[in-house]
Amino acid sequence: KEQAVKPFAEPAPQANRPEQKTDGMVAAGNSARVGKQLKPLGLRYSLVVFGPGGIDKEVDPSTPVGKDDAPRLTVQTNDTGYLSVFCVLSPSNKPTALFPSSGEGHVTGEKTIAIPLVSLFEGEQTAEQPRLLVWFSRSKRVEIPPLPDDSNALNLLVEHVAPGQPGTKAEYAVYVVNPALTPSSFVLVEIPLTVR
């Protein structure tokens, strides 16, 4: 019996987490096809800062961060594909590419990419809080993707994980899966940041 999941209203089922390999629902490793069947694309992201003693730690993505925190966005995809991360400082500004710094952004599934966010603190600060735009697909991106007008447009499954939740690892992370089984499917996530 399948459980209906409302996008952005309820957590994604654990079977849809990108790092898990259950019933072949999520492709792992380097193949986007298993038995000629496409698998959902997914990713995990987290906000990492320097903690006490200079040890990296994941924090809630809504935690205010400053330059001294040396904030980084970590992204792990569940399959090989193409990843892009942009910073949007205001609706009137053109998004700035944070990843890749060069090349096409080809990434290997299950490999964690750490993207420094110190550039957000360079230059003049505006009253606007920056937003990150994360895009992942099996095919190369040809242009900067538009900001999503409606968070439900892609019918993404989203799960926020925090330490202390039953049955979870001690982590602060967000798992996002696009359940569409088409070659052109992609994941597009907007992450608001709070800077101080």
Task: Give the arrangement of secondary structure elements.
Layout: E1 33-34, E2 37-38, E3 41-50, E4 56-59, E5 72-77, E6 81-88, E7 96-99, E8 106-107, E9 112-116, E10 131-137, E11 157-161, E12 173-178, E13 186-192
Antiparallel strand pairs: 1-2, 3-4, 3-5, 3-12, 5-9, 6-7, 6-8, 6-10, 10-13, 11-12
Structure description:
This protein is an all-beta fold and about 200 residues long. It is about 0% helix and about 35% strand. It has strands at about 35, 35-40, 40-50, 55-60, 70-75, 80-90, 95-100, 105, 110-115, 130-135, 155-160, 175-180, 185-190. The strands form three sheets. Strands 3, 4, 5, 9, 11 and 12 form a six-stranded antiparallel sheet that branches. Strands 6, 7, 8, 10 and 13 form a five-stranded antiparallel sheet that branches. It has a two-stranded antiparallel ribbon with strand order 1-2. Strand 1 and strand 2 form a beta hairpin. It is globular and about 45 Å long.
What are the segments in which pLDDT stays under 50 over at least 5 consecutive residues? 1-35
Task: Quote the beta fraction.
Answer: 25-35%
- The secondary-structure class comes to mainly beta
| Count of alpha and pi helical runs | 0
Average predicted local confidence, pLDDT: 77
Instruction: Give the overall shape.
Output: globular
Q: How does the major sheet shape up?
A: 6 strands, antiparallel
